[in-house]
Amino acid sequence: MAETWATSGSGEPAETGVDLHLDLTGPRLREGLTDALRDAVRSKRLAPGTRLPSSRTLAADLGVARNTVANAYAELIAEGWLTAQQGSGTRVARRVEPRRAAPAALRPRLAGQRPTYSLLTGSPNLAQFPRKQWLAAARRALTAAPHEAFALGEAHGRIELRTALADYLARSRGVYADPERIVVSAGFHHALGLMAQALKARRVRTVAVESYGLDIYREQLSNAGLRIPPLYVDDHGARTGDLAGMPDVGAVLITPAHQFPTGHALPPARRAAVLDWARATGGLILEDDYDGEFRYDREPVGALQGLDPDRIAYFGTVSKSLAPGLRLAWMVLPDWLVPEIITAKGYLDWLSSATEQLTLAEFIASGDYDRHVRAMRLRYRRRRDELVAALSERAPAIKVTGLAAGLQVVLELPAGTERSVIEAAAARGLEISGITEFRYETADAGWRLPVKDALVINYAAPLDNAWAGALDILCDVLA
Amino acid sequence: MAETWATSGSGEPAETGVDLHLDLTGPRLREGLTDALRDAVRSKRLAPGTRLPSSRTLAADLGVARNTVANAYAELIAEGWLTAQQGSGTRVARRVEPRRAAPAALRPRLAGQRPTYSLLTGSPNLAQFPRKQWLAAARRALTAAPHEAFALGEAHGRIELRTALADYLARSRGVYADPERIVVSAGFHHALGLMAQALKARRVRTVAVESYGLDIYREQLSNAGLRIPPLYVDDHGARTGDLAGMPDVGAVLITPAHQFPTGHALPPARRAAVLDWARATGGLILEDDYDGEFRYDREPVGALQGLDPDRIAYFGTVSKSLAPGLRLAWMVLPDWLVPEIITAKGYLDWLSSATEQLTLAEFIASGDYDRHVRAMRLRYRRRRDELVAALSERAPAIKVTGLAAGLQVVLELPAGTERSVIEAAAARGLEISGITEFRYETADAGWRLPVKDALVINYAAPLDNAWAGALDILCDVLA
To answer: What is the reported pTM?
Structure first.
């Protein structure tokens, strides 16, 4: 970096004598001069109204070509930092607001704000994200992609991804999937938002939701202006037979493969009941298959959707199978619903990265996705077994349910102890969720959920180095 | 693939004699059997109500372990394909809707539906997407990323990207950028949607827009319930001085670096005027810097935002500099506006892929972004010069404006000829836009834009093998 003192004044009226201490940096001199002048104005070393030396003078002082200075002045005049009037020369604009320079960088927000351990629901094990295979898939996909792959693409999502998903979902989840029925979205939340718009457009006013579930999705539906009466969830999952008695329900959001968070697979009779309801009323079933791949004691229960693809909208995502950060999810829709969802998507809106979609398509088509899911199934099963073993040894009174599948289990607690257990864990630096935060009931439902104290424990997410510690604290507070 | 005829009947009541022609495929036998049974039901070879052979019988017929059959039955019962009642054995569920199997794949929608050539606006040259460098950046970024990078992340966008952008924008666009002021979005359209929500939340009802621009953004603002009076655009850009005379305008959307599509840089006096308006009224300036990097005859005009970062929301994107398919854009906001935009984003909503954000952060930090922009600047400049040379030789009557920057130029036409020229080009297989489609005026504006016939020609987008042909047709229809 060359530093230069430019003292103009010689040959200029007195009031204009101005010392410019300019740091000439950067590869190209003109840019260096422009930046230096901009900084001098920003930092108020050059006050608003100050007259600058003529380009000839400054050029001479700096030992640069006059054109260099003239161009720098011209640029700053064009940008509004400087002004030039006939006769009064070049001055610092009076409008510039001086301000500190922006900080070079920032420490990440998340740092250090977290408790030491967390068993909160929602995340898979991020340490297991298959970086190598994902990058290899990206390389194959982007190398082979046609140029138009980098364009906006189509609202449905890349055809490569929809084709790969159609095959995978038919094979692994028993989904009746046709690329034309698939719409890619930036996560389940996004897909549900599109569905809410589409339902409202076809005058659906009421969507039944399970009496245990995530409040953010309930909020999303009610913020969209939909009524959301609760569907009673007991120890066998959602009581779908009740739908027949619920007036003007136009759609129902359920988690048949693995009720969230209670963890039960919807029994055959209740699967039949919800199909009967859909056929009798023309209602739409919203099947949230958020973690259907993860079942440990037998083959995963196939999706409900295959039984009646024209009455069921199937929702899937990579948020549990790979990583939520990818923001990739999909809907498999009845034919008639596809155009309505696309309309809800709107022009340019909501699209997921084309390169990311191509990478996932390749990742699935190559078999890496199946291999990853199988590997995670083993790993999560081991975690689950360690959890069960530790509890049976150190807290044998605790009943564990929802073991068969997914990333979490439910630990039943003595009545009235949920809150104190959560607080005890927090005091030890362990974040855990109580089942009460997932509970949903309304006065007009005509029933009340039995009081249930329990924890919902995500045993999948903790990093290996944190798992033992988290488990130890959990056992302590439950002992 | 092993084929087996399973003829049950022996030892079973007559009505249950059923031939199962099962194709046992797939690596794992049980899955093969489950799929084969599911297909038999789907394809109606097994009609609803049909009683299936006992697991013992079928196992014997197929020469597999009884458990294999029992497990397959159990799985299909759990999924609802089969039913089991005490005494009546296992039957095909009456609810199953038989349907054709889903097609294996689909030809891409886009194929063959396009005219041969296009000079439509909106896209950079996709053949130039730096695949190698992008993949290399992805490798470095994903290899180095912390595990939490694969989590949902924060609504603002990854800190790595916001830090890289802050440095780049300050350096290359004169933006006063601080990572804390930056919010990442999935494209400009998405960012503008968030801004519309935030403006409405603070009771802004009116946003002035340029009288030439893209209708989709005007629609987006008015669909959000905002009034959008036009701001007159003449041959020097937007007449920002008029804002003082426009009642209750709370914000103005402008393209100061390069008016779209007319192609002018906003002159210093008009830059000053819009700042004066903002300061006098407390109004917000929405600066759309969609292609500010591309200026050919001198240094790019710096962003307006640097002059008053607390009254200007700056919008940038990679859609012109890299590829629209990446769906990555950003806002640099006044401090006070950041929380309001984050509120508009809502929980989980709108997030861009974390891996894509990390890749762009690395791509920028490594200097690849600067190199790519410089290389494209040269390439586009050459294209522009070829266009101008060809026109001056073959259609010398045509006046070319908006040459200094961006990816397109305006070709002025004799009055009343715009439509016929576009149709003549279309007849030759060349898509082009007339300036009329970008025109916006309202009755209550108190003025009418002078009638202007012109073409807006994107010379950047055509692939090399299509450029000469497109240019040739263009010259023909203009000659």
So the answer is: 0.84
- For the stretch A252-263, pLDDT in tens is 999 999 999 999
Q: B159 contacts in A (CB within 8 Å)?
A: 106, 108-109
Question: Two tokens at B428?
Answer: 């030759």
| CATH assignment, B2-92 | 1.10.10.10
Q: Which CATH superfamily includes the segment(s) A104-129+370-478?
A: Aspartate Aminotransferase, domain 1 (3.90.1150.10)
10 Å CB burial of residue A476 (0-12, 13-18, 19+) is middle
B178–A355 C-beta distance less than 8 A: no
Q: Helices (DSSP H) in A145-261: which residue ranges?
A: 159-173, 188-201, 215-223
Alpha carbon distances (Å) from B131 to A143, A154, A207, B220, B368? 7, 21, 45, 32, 11
Return the HEC string of B208-226. Answer: EEECECCHHHHHHHHHCCC
Nearest CA among B348, B426, B462 for reference residue A147: B462
Picking from B131, B130, B49, the residue whose alpha carbon sits closest to that of residue B90 is: B49
Contacts of B147 in chain A (CB under 8 A): 126-127, 129, 463
Residue B262 has pLDDT above 70, yes or no: yes
CA distance A314 to chain B (A): 15
The pLDDT value recorded for residue B349 is: 61
Of B38, B276, B307, the CB nearest to A174: B38
Which of B74, B80, B139 has the CB atom closest to A135's CB atom?
A: B139
Tell me whether the CATH fold assigned to B2-92 matches the one assigned to B104-129+370-478: no
pLDDT of residue A101: 40
* B370: contact with A, CB 8 A cutoff: no
Cβ of A167 within 8 Å of Cβ of B104? The answer is yes
**Domain at B137-367, CATH from 3.60.40.10, 3.40.50.170, 3.40.640.10, 3.30.470.30:** 3.40.640.10
Task: Name, in order, each residue with C-beta under 8 angstroms of A14's C-beta and a sequence gap of 6 or more.
Answer: none
- pLDDT score for B79: 81
What Cα–Cα distance (Å) separates residue A438 from each residue in A173, A233, A244, A320, A418? 26, 11, 24, 19, 13
Phi and psi (nearest 5°) for B327? 50, 55
Domain spans of chain B, in order of start = 2-92, 104-129+370-478, 137-367
In the three-class reduction of DSSP (H, G, I as helix; E, B as strand; rest coil), residue A244 is classed as helix
Task: Answer yes or no: are the C-beta atoms of B350 and B194 closer than 8 Å.
Answer: yes
Write down the pLDDT at residue B461: 95
B226: its two tokens: 């905002």
Q: What is the ipTM of this complex?
A: 0.83
From chain A residues 229-288, the ones with a CB under 8 A of any chain B CB are 265, 267-268, 271-272, 275-276
For chain B, report the end-to-end CA distance as a whole number of angstroms: 66
- Tell me the pLDDT tens digit for each residue of A411-443: 999 999 999 999 999 999 999 999 999 999 998
Helix (H, G, I), strand (E, B) or coil at B22: strand
For A34-173, list the strands marked E by DSSP.
82-85, 89-92, 117-118
- B39 to chain A, closest Cα gap in Å: 10
Q: Do B352 and A153 touch (CB under 8 A)?
A: no
- The dihedrals phi and psi of B104, each to the nearest 5 degrees, come to -65, -45
Cα dihedral B432, B435, B440, B445, rounded to 10, equals -170
Higher pLDDT, A60 or A163: A163
